[in-house]
Amino acid sequence: MGSHPQYDVFADEFLDHARECFYNAHYDRPACLELLGEVSGRRVLDVACGPGLYAEALVARGAGVIGLDHSPRMIELCRQRVPSGEFHVHDLADPLDQLPDDSVDQVLFALALEYVDDRTALLRELRRVLRPDGMLVLSRPHPTGDWLRHGGSYFDARVIEEVWSQGWRVRCWLAPLERTCEELHHAGFLIERLVEPRPTAEAAAINRASYERLSSEPTGFLAIRAVPDPRR
Q1: Cα(184)–Cα(120) distance, rounded to whole angstroms?
Q2: Which CATH architecture does the domain made up of 6-141+177-227 adopt?
Q3: Which end of the chain has the lower number of beta carbons within 10 A, N or C?
Q4: Cα–Cα nearest to 223, from 192, 185, 201
Q5: Largest Cα–Cα distance in the chain?
Q6: For the segment 116-154, what is each residue's pLDDT rounded down to a tens digit?
Q7: What are the transmembrane regions (predicted)?
Q8: Tens-place pLDDT, residues 164-191
Q9: Do the Cβ atoms of 26 and 199 come closer than 8 Å?
């Protein structure tokens, strides 16, 4: 996606939006946190940590958090929101040289895989820094929903540009589920669980139409928990 941090220009607006919005607070965050499970006393790497909303939830559950994001403004917001965390500006196209092998217990990679060009290389780095008994939880847009919105061949990985309802312009990859599974495999992971989340019950009061659609259609996100393959 290039060297420019796309979210930097609307980082503050994104924080205001994502703090309590339907898709973040009542859909993706609960699904990812449930897959992570017990985090108390564990060191969690929050990859593409955004403005620190996931990190805040992890610290509240007793985790020690290291966060990485391409956007300098997002990292400023993280440091303000989660003073106990350790946050760094980092382009995910680069190796994680600041982290030694086997140095984190869990990795969270929420809704950012689609912004990475060489996803297998990054996933290999996450496998390297993860302890052998650790886990990776990642979420991404549901590929069926991507295909229904954008058309074309479901199986062709390609870059698209979208303008979100807030007027934010973003570029990202569309890729089939098969591609994501293969990238995890080649990076040395085994998929332990794959979840197609449903919104929380509270979400129905926020947006009934979205609640009913995401409770019945594969048009939102999916989440995966993967573990290091002990054979590799």
Answers
A1: 7
A2: 3-Layer(aba) Sandwich (3.40)
A3: C
A4: 192
A5: 47
A6: 999 999 999 999 999 999 999 999 999 999 999 999 999
A7: none
A8: 878 889 999 999 999 999 999 999 999 9
A9: yes
For the chain, the domains span 6-141+177-227
User: Given a cut of 80, is residue 1 above it in pLDDT?
Assistant: no
199, pLDDT greater than 80: yes
Which long-range contacts does 10-18 make (Cβ < 8 Å, 24+ apart)?
A: 10/166, 10/168, 11/51, 11/71, 11/73, 11/74, 11/77, 12/73, 12/77, 13/166, 13/168, 14/50, 14/51, 14/168, 15/50, 15/51, 15/53, 15/77, 17/166, 18/50, 18/51, 18/53
Give the model's confidence band at 17: pLDDT under 50 very low, under 70 low, under 90 confident, else very high: confident
Which tokens go with 41? Answer: 């006393």
Q: Which two tokens stand for residue 226?
A: 């993967």
Nearest Cα neighbor of 33 from 199, 217, 223, 205 is 223
132's tokens: 């052998």
**Cα 60 from Cα 141, distance rounded (Å):** 26
Q: Which tokens go with 202?
A: 């509270």
Note the pLDDT of residue 27.
96
217 pLDDT more than 70: yes
Percent with pLDDT over 70 in the chain: 99
CA dihedral 7→139→225→71, nearest 10 degrees, is 0
